[in-house]
Design a protein that fits this description.
Number of domains: 1
Order of helices and strands: EEHHHHEEEEH
CATH architecture: Roll
CATH topology: Thiol Ester Dehydrase, Chain A
Strand content: 25-35%
Radius of gyration: 18 Å
Helix content: 10-25%
Largest sheet: 6 strands, antiparallel
Oligomer: single chain
Structural class: alpha+beta
CATH superfamily: Hotdog Thioesterase
Shape: elongated
Number of helices: 5
Number of strands: 6
Length: about 170
């Protein structure tokens, strides 16, 4: 069997920044959205929009039922991606977030993605830009986003909070 080129290789979450290559891919495990998730998110954020919290109102809406908050979908995606705390110093930016279709209670989400870009920042870290696709149990795209993280270049020890703050300022 011929090995895949780096651009098609699966991402090693424990690898140092300098071992990463644009095009490396990943697929997360799945997570089902529940009633408790939606109610808990509404309580935590104060977002009690009737599309998420009122079954009667939502039943008469364009979606025909309650749906998950978009920010809940993004939050679950961040939790599904196995970011190594010894490598990922900080979440830097979410960008180009587009919600393509509603996420219904009972839908199971999975995140697939790839390393879209790598930008060295300092001797301690580099900026990794991911292109994420969040799909439901039917493989339908529900959301896409670009996600930037600050990734450690050293032996795996994350930079201290002060270094992370300094690096984040440099890349703004």
């Amino acid at each position: 069997m011929t090995p895949k080129p780096d651009s098609e290789a699966a991402l090693d979450w424990a690898a140092p920044y300098d071992a990463l290559r644009a095009g490396q891919t990943f697929v997360s495990r799945g997570r089902t959205i529940t009633e408790a998730d939606v109610v808990g998110f509404a309580a935590l954020t104060g977002d009690w929009h009737p599309q998420h919290s009122d079954a009667v109102w939502a039943g008469e809406s364009a979606f025909g039922e309650r749906i998950a908050h978009g920010m809940l979908v993004i939050s679950f995606a961040v939790g599904l991606v196995p970011l190594d705390p010894h490598r990922v110093v900080a979440l830097r930016r979410l960008g180009d977030v587009v919600f393509k279709r509603p996420v219904r209670l009972g839908d199971t989400l999975k995140v697939s993605g790839k390393v879209a870009d790598l930008s060295p920042v300092s001797e301690q870290a580099g900026l990794v830009t991911f292109a994420w696709s969040i799909q439901n149990q039917d493989g339908q795209l529900v959301c896409r986003a670009r996600v930037e993280v600050l990734w450690s270049r050293d032996s795996g020890e994350a930079a201290g909070a002060a270094e992370a703050s300094d690096l984040a300022t440099v890349t703004s």
